[in-house]
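Pilot study result, target chain (426 residues):
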Amino acid sequence: MALALGIDFGTSGVRAAAVDGRRREIWAYRIDYGNQPQSYEAWQRALFAVLAALPSHLTPQIERIALDGTSGTVLLCDGQGQPLAPALMYSDGRGKSALPQVKALVPADSPACSATSSLAKLLWWQTPLSPDLWHQGRYVLHQADWLSAHLHGRWGISDYHNSLKLGYDPGLLAYPDAMLGQSWASLLPKVLKPGQVVGQVTADIVQRFGLSSQCEVVAGTTDSIAAFLASGACQVGEGVTSLGSTLAIKLLSAQRVEASEYGIYSHRLGNYWLAGGASNTGGAVLKQFFDADTLTSLSHQIDPSAATDLDYYPLLQPGERFPINDPHLPPRLTPRPADDVAFLHGLLLGIARIEQRGYDLLTQRGASSLERVYTAGGGAKNSTWTTIREHLLQVPIKIAPSTEAAVGAAYLAQGGSSPFSAASST
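Predicted structure:
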């Protein structure tokens, strides 16, 4: 029985999942990084710990492996793949000083035009590193790139999901000419299609962990794309809403949508595009006022069809990314009624309206029409909230069968982008 292994490198630890040819999850594993979540040594130890934890009867059956990592987490490495400096994490904004250079190299709507982008980090490295150390650099690699290379042995390979924030254009399947003309262009990784076979595992990996010498490693993806692949959404017009601490939406579209002024950009997915954005609203606002048990109890008392005059924009603090891109947008949480049921109803409706506004904005900017939504995150379990959202969105809403990025990475290893090459409008 051929198996695919997906390994998800999150912010605090690693999750792994093995799935069979019928997409059944038959093994799962989790390990934390310990007290060094930003250490590449800890990532490497966790990778090898996952492989060592594979049950001996499953290990020889692993046919393909795919890794995902946090988008924008990067390393500058020498010719042997050894990092020359500590990793810069996805949220690290010190590249802000390099933004003028970035904007001169890539289109204005490129996701690389951000202080936290891979490209901004690459350009920032030139300042603090000594000239000798900088000139030792041979590869700039994302978290998933670097870790995958420990399995297949080929440094300098990436995928077009991770490389989007490095300036790579997935529409043209190329870096901009302005980037290729720079003195550091040789650092840029070769970019493959996510899921494309890079090579077989090395002899050392075979010997250490008992994997088959025929086991292949494929080009990886980012954690958010892997979570989408796990959701079950596969048709144009299907969206995935993550209702966790914040709210994020992704819509599978036949058209590419780029609108940086609204916090929108698209990942390529086969022959189609995954357009989306992330809001600062979400479950964290609800938890500011109610604990989990109270939320459940009050939700059961809400009449989802009842009208309310409350017009909330629930935020923890000023600042929004999407569907309104305004770093100073104030929260709107007043007036607060004396009745907590009415207050919670207003909060749930406010977040649902932001979700609706987000999907509407995507379609207004050219994305395919929304036909169905899969929900992930803790909010997926709130049936009252689901009813409110269905009334606003006017499409069916389902709970995603899986929200684990590791499962999505395993699907990618199986050839998980193929459904999107033949997807059709519903």
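One observation from the pilot: The radius of gyration is 22 Å. A full batch analysis is planned for the follow-on phase.
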